[in-house]
Amino acid sequence: MKIVVCVKQVPDPEAPASAFKVDAATNKVVPPSGIPPVMNGFDEQAMEAALRIKDKNSAQVVVLSVGPEGARDVIKKALAMGGDEGFLVSDQALEDSDAHGIAYALAEAVKKIGGCDLVLSGRQASDWDQAQVPAGVAELLGLPCVTLAKDVAVEDSAVRVQRVLPDGYEVWTAPLPAVITVSNELGEPRYATLKGIMAAARKKVTVWSAADLALDKSRIGAAGRRVLVRKLFIPVKEGKCEVMEGDTVAAKASALAHKLREAKLI
């Protein structure tokens, strides 16, 4: 069987908050200097889910991403974990694409790969947190989609998923091919071994342009956006401290209660 794992390059969530900046003129995040982007954490768990299936079944794991040339690094990391092939869709025409445009590019890439039995991705990306792209891929490919998986197992011609609930989980079964999004409840992803890193260094990442996939330019980039960002900004947080005056503890407590009542907090 063939499993496609969709991965995304995102800003490092471990970077200090002071490194996060927004260009107000373009409504875009300014990449922090000296802090390289990383693979989306949930996508690492999707990769782990694919490798667990591969451990139990004869499967080929294909890593797929849409992004700049630098996204090769996250594909290489997934290959070092145990992936077999890597594909990157990279084109200036895809810049400023929204979730629909990225889903469209991924769906067309899956078709060009030759289809697959299972598409896995993280439950959401840590940069925009929209969780829209995997569902969009499923819709465009006409496949069933099960979200928030804590366990994924292939049984005959179906996939069995333990889907996370606020108070436990429920079990869903879907026919293959299908799209599954993986949640952090799956557990920690495996580390790449030295052997895996060396093997990944020898594996070629195939790069496709928008033309290679025959993408409709009206559906990608700024022209194809269905969601417009009106304003992107960092919320201003202010803190104030006021010392309650009084000769006794009771007087200070009374003054505090009066202030809280004025603020309609009590």
CATH secondary-structure class of the largest domain: Alpha Beta
Give the helix level as a range of percent.
Answer: 25-40%
Mean pLDDT: 95
The CATH homologous superfamily name of the largest domain equals HUPs
Our count of domains comes out at 2
Q: What is the CA-CA span between the terminal residues?
A: 62 Å
- Low-pLDDT runs of 5+ residues are none
Q: Write the CATH fold name of the largest domain.
A: Rossmann fold
What CATH architecture of the largest domain would you give? 3-Layer(aba) Sandwich
Number of DSSP E strands: 13
List the helices and strands in order. EEEEEHEHEHEHEEEEHEH
Outline type: globular
Q: Main sheet, how many strands, which sense, barrel?
A: 9 strands, mixed
The number of helices is 6
Task: Give the strand line-up of the largest sheet.
Answer: 11-10-9-12-8-1-6-7-13
Instruction: Tell me the strand percentage band.
Output: 25-35%
Key phrases:
266 residues; Rossmann fold; 13 strands; two-stranded antiparallel sheet; 2 domains; 26% strand; alpha/beta
Report what the structure shows.
This protein is an alpha/beta fold and 266 residues long. A hairpin with a 4-residue loop joins strand 3 (21-23) and strand 4 (28-30). It is globular, with a radius of gyration of 23 Å. The termini are far apart. The chain folds into two domains: 2-224, 3-Layer(aba) Sandwich (Rossmann fold), CATH 3.40.50.620; 238-266. It is built from six helices and 13 strands. The strands form three sheets. The chain has a nine-stranded mixed beta sheet with strand order 11-10-9-12-8-1-6-7-13, sandwiched between helices. It has a two-stranded antiparallel ribbon with strand order 2-5. A two-stranded antiparallel sheet has the order 3-4. Helix 3 (99-113) packs across helix 4. It has helices spanning 41-56, 72-81, 99-113, 133-141, 194-202, 249-262; strands spanning 2-6, 9-10, 21-23, 28-30, 38-39, 60-66, 85-89, 118-122, 145-155, 158-165, 168-175, 178-182, 205-208.
